[in-house]
Amino acid sequence: MSQDPQSTSTDARPEPDGEVTLRELAAWARTACWFGLLMLPVLIWVNGPAVSTDQAWVRTALCVLIVTGSVGVWGIRQLKRLVAGRETRRESKPPNRRV
Q1: What integer pLDDT is reported at residue 54 of this predicted model?
Q2: Longest Cα pair distance anywhere in the chain, in angstroms?
Q3: Most buried among 22, 47, 70, 84, by the most CB within 10 A?
Q4: Helix (H, G, I), strand (E, B) or coil at 10
């Protein structure tokens, strides 16, 4: 009989088979937003000025989406760090004792 390789593993958490976690998805979204923000000036330079109103609206919407996504993902990450920092400070803080 062969044993399951995951049951003998010393890892704290086993690797899921082909599942994407929310943390991985957030990392990919963050990377995509920042890459899009870096590439936006290059795309505007390559495509030239907007010829029609539709092109101007699409370009503006794309720019707003990329900037909003980048700032939003950054803000959520900073907020999580702030909350995590407060929780660790609460745990390490000694209780108030009046003498």
Answers
A1: 93
A2: 77
A3: 70
A4: coil
| DSSP state letters, 54-88 | HHHHHHHHHHHHHHHHHHHHHHHHHHHHHHHHHHH
Q: Tens of pLDDT along 50-89?
A: 889 999 999 899 889 988 988 888 888 888 888 888 777 6
* % helix, strand, coil for the chain, step of 5: 65, 0, 35
Distance CA 63, CA 7 (A): 48
Q: What are the b/e assignments for 37-62, b being 16+ CB within 10 Å?
A: eeeeeeeeeeeeeeeeeeeeeebeee
Q: Answer yes or no: are the C-beta atoms of 26 and 70 closer than 8 Å.
A: no
